[in-house]
Every structure is written in C-alpha cells, then in structure tokens.
Design goal:
The chain has a single domain, classed as Chromosomal Replication Initiator Protein Dnaa, Chain: A. By secondary structure, it is mostly helical. The protein is built from 6 helices and no strands.
C-alpha cells in the first residue's frame, strides 16, 4: 500500500539508476538505448505512483520530457508488468524498497 507521505522523486530516480546500473546523467539524457529508456520509463511510472507531481513536473525532473511522454511511460510500464515477468519483478522489488523506506521515515 502506498503511504500518503510523498516520496522524493530524486530518491526514486536514484534507486532506479542503481537497480538498472545506469547513471543519473544517462537517465536524463535524450538516449533511446533500450536499458536506459526502460529505466527512465520505470522511474516515471514510480514517480507517478509515489508523488503528487504533475506529468509536466515529472517531465522536468527527467530533463524536459513532455507530458505525453510521461503518460506513455506510465501506461507502457503499467501494461508491460502484467505480461513481462522480469519487469514485474523489477518494479515489485523497487516498490518494496520504496515502501520499506517510506514506513521507516514515518516512524
């Protein structure tokens, strides 16, 4: 369950970078290399879930992505986790870390 406490989007981006072994610079660049693009989409998806940031604000966090790009990432990841076991596991693991840290900060 997602806490009502907003999670810092920079924390989520850093967590995703660590998980996918990409740098913060790579995830924010205009790179379409599949591993980087996947990490970027997962970051957008998780930021959408764990914050009240608008699509515009999420796009700004990831270096001028358009709201349409952020929306596409949210829909794409949300759909793919239903059929892609590896992606589903990745997102589940990241959410468990976020949820665990969110509970700790609420104490």
């Amino acid at each position: 369950m997602i806490s009502k406490t907003e999670v810092d989007p920079q924390y989520i981006i850093g967590l995703v970078c660590d998980h996918y072994e990409v740098t913060m610079d790579e995830i924010k660049r205009q790179v379409r290399f599949q591993p980087v693009a996947k990490a970027r989409q997962v970051a957008m998806y998780l930021i959408s879930l764990y914050s009240d940031r608008t699509l515009v604000e999420i796009g700004v966090l990831l270096n001028r992505r358009t709201p349409a790009t952020v929306h596409h990432a949210f829909v794409e990841i949300g759909t793919r986790i239903l059929v892609d076991g590896d992606l589903s596991r990745d997102v589940k693991e990241l959410r468990e870390v976020i949820d665990g840290n969110n509970k700790m900060s609420a104490l």
